[in-house]
Structures are given as structure tokens and as C-alpha cells.
Amino acid sequence: MAAATTLILGAAYSLWMYKRVIFGEVGNRQVAELTDIGAREFLMLALLAAAVLWMGLYPKRSRI
Predict the structure, then answer these.
(1) Sign of dihedral through CA atoms 54, 60, 61, 63?
(2) Cβ distance 55 to 48 under 8 Å?
(3) pLDDT-derived band of residue 61, with 50, 70 and 90 as boundaries?
(4) Cβ contacts of residue 32 below 8 Å, gap of 6+?
């Protein structure tokens, strides 16, 4: 579990760093004003991720 989490965080950081190094700062004012994910979107993402994780760990219990 720790290795998978580290792998995902490392990939996310690498992509973020690549974007900053290659493309630089955001040039479009409208894009720069966009906000990150809100609490409602994060909750829905967490629920879906938990469901996928549950189905991966216990596949026989989650038959549809």
C-alpha cells in the first residue's frame, strides 16, 4: 500500500514538475483564475476511489 501510494505521488509530482519546467507560467489569464478541486468534487472522487479499491480487494463480494 505504501509503495503504491509513493508511486502515485511520485508520478504526480513528476508531471507537475515537467509542466512547470517545459511550459513555464500560465500565459492565459482565464486559465490562471481557475480553481482547484472543491470539497464536493473531492468527496465524489474519494467515494469512487474507495469503491474501486473495495472491488479490487474483494472481487467476489462485489458482483453486480
Answers:
(1) positive
(2) no
(3) confident
(4) 26
User: Is residue 36 helix, strand or coil?
Assistant: coil
Q: Which residue would you say has higher pLDDT here, 43 or 1?
A: 43
Q: Are 62 and 54 in contact (CB under 8 A)?
A: yes
33 — pLDDT class (breaks 50, 70, 90)? confident
Q: How far is CA 42 from each of CA 28, 39, 60, rounded to the nearest angstrom?
A: 26, 5, 28
Contacts of 54 (CB under 8 A, 6+ apart): 62
Side chain identity, residue 3: A
